[in-house]
What does this fold into?
Amino acid sequence: MYVIDIMQQAAGNCRKNNVYDSENKYVTNPGLTYEGILELFVSNNRNFMEIMEYNSTLSNINLELLSETMRHKRLMMNNLGINPVFIKDLMTRYNVQVNWGGMSDRLYNAYYSTYDMDWSTNNLRKLLAYYTLHIDFLKFIMYQLILRHLMSSETIKVGPFQLLIALDHFQNRLNLNNDQKINELKVAINKYGKSKSDKDECLMSIKTYLQVELQTICESLGCHLIEPITGNVEELMIPCESMNAHEEIYVQCLVSEVRTVKVDVDYYLDHLNHIFAYVSFEAIQLIIKYIREINQ
It folds into this structure.
């Protein structure tokens, strides 16, 4: 009934008796039964699909794709927290020099904690915790890869502007365009790339910034950083179970060290695209925004 109350509040200013107001008799009924709630959901889903089909003819919406991205599995990031193959690949493939500890257990437990959907008592905070933990996990790997390139020798380093492009792609894929930390990092890398006289100072500033961020994320994930950061290309030989179809292309890049260290960032982005097929992070970020609003 709590959800019904929220629906009533949200629909308070809607025009009454419109064509899609068929649920009103249920929402306003104080003695709503389980059967009534079930009928409400069925009716609401039917009306939703009718609206979407109508709108799809007007705006070229791919209704099939939209329906797919709204599935529970997709909204849960393709169930990343309970997918051992995906988690293992991400943890081991990129040699990001960390002792993961019990991190995988935290991801697993966070997934099942979301089943506690008592909206009236926790305001979906456990769902927010799930998203935050998993996105932090993905950011951790990206940050470590960037830091490795910035601290590597000149002969195998990916340039700062290439890193900026990769960071842009990462940000866009996860719909993190409003992420203040990532935006601050991009400004710092851009400054380093354009710097003529104070490159060492800029580089040290980025390193310090990333180490603070990595340590903060480690605290939430339950893992421990391993120092120092090195430009290790041996990691690329570790099998990647979740992307076997791309392995041949990936191994071809091992010929050149310069191409190899570049590919760990780019390959990571391809890896994420594979893992998150049909996942709309735009929808996920809207859910995150809503949960934060109702918990203010």
Remarks:
- The first helix runs from residue 2 to 10.
- Residues 151 and 271 are 24 Å apart (CA to CA).
